[in-house]
Amino acid sequence: MSTSQYSDSASLPPSKEHVDPEDIDPDAEFGGLAARKELERKLVWKLDLRMSILVLIYILNYVDRNNAGAARSRGLVADLHLTDQQFATLLSILYVGYIIMQIPSNMFLNLTGKPSLYLPACMIVWGVISALTGITTNFTGAVITRFFLGFVEAAFFPGALFLISKWYKRTEIGFRTAILYCGNITSNAFGALLASGILGGMNNILGHAAWRWLFYLEGALTVFVAICAIFILPDFPSTTKWLSDDERRLALRRMEEDAGVGDQKETEEGGFAHGLYLAVTDWTVWWFAMAVNAIVVSLSFNAYFPTLSATLGYNPTVSLLLVAPPFVFAAIVAFCLCRHSDYKQERFYHIIGSWVAGIIGFIIAISTMNTAARYVSLFLMAQTYAGLVVMLAWMNNSFPRPPSKRAVCVAIINGFSQLGNVAGSYIWPSSWGPTYRYSYGICIAGSGTAIIMAWVFKQHLISLNKKLEREEQEKGVKEKGFRYLL
């Protein structure tokens, strides 16, 4: 991770007369500081409104991904004659395609600069594929659709994170990442409620099983939202057409001020694959990816949450409804935690606080079969997502420039972390239920590993900040420049 590119020194335009840098108003082109603040407020508000559709897209992304879990006990397994191992494969195969496409997808997105077209196009395709899952009649057909579903869904989340990082400053990005990831978290609640209604009321409608209607309707909804997103999503600051000239200059200036260097071509060297080379050869990218992978293993309960809520002893419809409250709670915790993390400009302790609470939830679930205690444990487990959201904000803060490298870093970390979902699909066999003690033990190990690796990463950033400080002192720079968030 290079530090030299963040020098805070800047050369002024040549002039015959000496001009005191303090007399130059950097906001003069926007009409002064007050006018700039008003313009910036309107720009950010406009962005927030348009970016908000990413939350809905992410909800549908996860609903389409996790509907197999909701349909597991409502006819999917019986109609397709699936064994426990085959159902686990049905879940895990999605992440094979998902992992394969992460890096090339983000590289393509950075090259084209057209997320308003690229992301919705991928969304339309995955909506159609999700709907086609409803016509499968055997394990082979279901596996094929699930593989290609992951292949196309891979474009969205790393692409959305990269898009956010092109518009928002470090003091803003944690909160926006939290809002986006709340789409993931609330998808579990929304998906469970939607599945409960469809599975409970549409069996044998037009001769189709209820679980097939689940795929048909959710896939159709995804396609509809994707078409709307084409006209709502922004592109990058340099390619978005609906910005005024002042707004475009301000959007680019904000990114330059945030990291001490611009976010377009200023830090780019080499050809199309140079960012790939920088990311692949940076050991901290792989370390961070392994840390996220470890916590994703501990979050593998997500796909089996309806199964875990069923261990409370209620009927299938009530069990699905009980899935919603823990994830609503998790969304609220994520929102508050990221907001506070941005305010304090601190990441590490916010992350591990959430993960430690999750470990307590796993321990409670291992220790008792008491209904109330186990339901409380589900709340503590679900809020573990809040720490992951702050971790993802930390990722964008820690690999800021050049943008081609950041695009690949986001893809590598998110893609590699999905190996945790592949492994996690196999740690919840029915034979380990209803206590699932071994499964929870693995989750505790994953969380503990992630905490240790996050601490090591923090120590590395501390050393980089000290190096940046020494460089400024050697150059005689008095004003504090870029620092990595800890």
Report on this model:
- With 486 residues, the chain is mainly alpha-helical.
- The protein has 19 helices and no strands.
- Helix 15 (348-367) packs antiparallel against helix 16 (371-382).
- The two termini are 15 Å apart.
- Mean pLDDT is 84; it is low at 2-19.
Coarse shape: globular
Q: Structural class of the secondary structure composition?
A: mainly alpha
Mean pLDDT: 84
SSE string, helices as H and strands as E: HHHHHHHHHHHHHHHHHHH
- Uncertain stretches of 5 or more adjacent residues: 2-19
In terms of quaternary structure, what is this? single chain
For the termini, the CA-CA separation is: 15 Å
Describe the largest sheet: none
Percentage of β-strand residues: under 5%
Question: Brief description of this entry?
Answer:
By secondary structure, the protein is mostly helical. The protein contains 19 helices and no strands. The longest helix has 39 residues, at 437-475.
Tag the structure with descriptive keywords.
mainly alpha; 0% strand; 72% helix; globular; 486 residues
List the helices and strands and how they pair.
Layout: H1 33-51, H2 53-80, H3 84-112, H4 115-132, H5 139-153, H6 156-165, H7 170-201, H8 210-230, H9 245-259, H10 274-280, H11 283-298, H12 305-310, H13 316-321, H14 324-344, H15 348-367, H16 371-382, H17 384-398, H18 403-424, H19 437-475
Helix pairs in contact: 1-9, 2-3, 2-4, 2-7, 2-8, 3-5, 3-18, 4-5, 4-6, 4-8, 6-7, 6-18, 7-8, 7-14, 7-17, 10-18, 11-18, 11-19, 14-16, 14-17, 15-16, 15-17, 15-19
